[in-house]
Amino acid sequence: MNQAIRKLSGLLVLPVLLAALLLLPVRANAVEYECTAELPVSVKLNGSNEELFHITIECAEDADPDQPMPAEEEEGLWVAGGDKVSFTEFCYTEPGDYKYIVKQEKAGTAYMTYDDTVYTVVIRVTNLETEEGTTLQAQVYANTDDDPENKVAELSFLNTYAPPTPTPDDHPDIAEAIENGTWGTPTPKPAAIPQTSDNLPLVSLIVVLVVAAVAIVALVIARKRSGKKNEE
């Protein structure tokens, strides 16, 4: 009798365990999901200059040094004044706050004032529930070191190129050109002198001189012959 009860109990345990497992909530592991992010950066320029400005990105001091970095980590971004580009291919596989420092390197161009703003960027990765299941999403927040309490709408650097304007006392020719609006325009080349037949009189003169020389020689020879005949 007891043996029959034990067998019956053993048979009942397995369905109960299966039912308990089916009732446990199942949560997707974030490692199985991923999301990507981009970080746009713009450079504005007061003045006119063809320089490409160098924007760099690095991990914040209190960030994980092994956190995901963009494809442009080593080279940085090279941006012309007035352009906007992006750090790309941030790839995240788990939720968290990822912190970066974005700044501009000074190249040392004469008369160029570089924006020395330093941005602290936080890319916050969180779970996102969708009809297909749980995935990840990324949101970007940024502030400046000068005003860490207020978030900025974009990462932007403003540089100024201001070479000195020549004065009439130092460079009267340049100052005059600036005043009349011709400074910076190339000096026109003198028009080429067309080739004509002006060489013709010189050729004719040479011919005349040669003919005259031959005539003089002939005359001298003729006189010598005439003198010899008279002596005979």
Automatic annotation (TrEMBL):
Record keywords: Membrane, Transmembrane, Transmembrane helix
The keyword Transmembrane helix appears for this protein: yes
Pfam families tied to this protein: FctA
Gene3D superfamilies: 2.60.40.3050
Region listing for Disordered, in residue ranges: 164-191
Highest taxon, organism lineage: Bacteria
Membrane-spanning residues: 202-222
Domain Streptococcal pilin isopeptide linkage: 49-162
Protein name, UniProt field: Streptococcal pilin isopeptide linkage domain-containing protein
